[in-house]
Write a structure and sequence with these properties.
Low-confidence stretches: none
Order of helices and strands: HEHEEHEEHEH
Number of helices: 5
CATH topology of the domain at 35-128: Alpha-Beta Plaits
CATH architecture of the domain at 35-128: 2-Layer Sandwich
Length: 187
């Protein structure tokens, strides 16, 4: 029995068939559906939190991050992922309405502390805005907010004027009725 096993081992070792992979030197081709580290397209993210709500392990939480689009994501909150808890199920990717969260083929996650494997928006984001683009977006968001406030003030003013006209119209009708009653009494 021992000789039979030894014979099989020698036969396989001499035939040239690789039994083990030389991992760091040779990385095998990964399938297209590989689920690795998440990638966040920061220009698309709307900060809805759908990824955080659907996560079964509660490893995604939304954190403030100032380098996103203030026009699309008014709260400026983006996902932070704790890979110590993540089971790479892909539910967060499937549930994202803006399709901004995807999974890459990067699978090497290591660290000395638990905090080293908690990836914030700055670690998983791609397509970051430059400082000039951020300044332009902030200015555009400020102008949009001012326009919104101006329209709300105009609407409130128009509503107030409409209410005042309606009240004046009611008083005018009452006044004409009282005048008619006084004329009848005088006659």
């Amino acid at each position: 029995m021992v000789l039979k096993n030894l014979k099989m081992t020698l036969k396989r070792s001499l035939s040239g068939v690789e039994v083990t992979r030389l991992y760091p030197e040779k990385i095998m081709d990964l399938p297209d559906a590989e689920r690795g580290v998440h990638v966040l397209e920061i220009r698309k993210c709307i900060g809805c939190g759908a990824c955080a709500r659907i996560c079964p392990n509660d490893c995604i939480k939304l954190v403030p991050y100032a380098r996103g689009n203030p026009l699309k994501n008014k709260k400026q909150q983006y996902p932070q992922i704790d890979y110590g808890r993540c089971m790479f199920c892909g539910l967060c990717v499937d549930d994202c309405p803006a399709s901004c969260l995807t999974m890459s083929k990067v699978f090497e996650i290591a660290g000395w502390d638990r905090d080293d494997i908690v990836y914030g928006p700055e670690d998983i984001a791609v397509g970051m805005y430059t400082d000039q683009e951020l300044a332009e977006l902030a200015e555009e968001a400020r102008k949009a907010e001012e326009e919104k406030k101006r329209k709300a003030a105009e609407a409130a003013k128009a509503k107030k004027e409409k209410a005042a006209k309606a009240k004046a119209g009611e008083e005018g009708e009452k006044g004409s009725g009282e005048k008619a009653a006084k004329k009848k009494k005088a006659e």
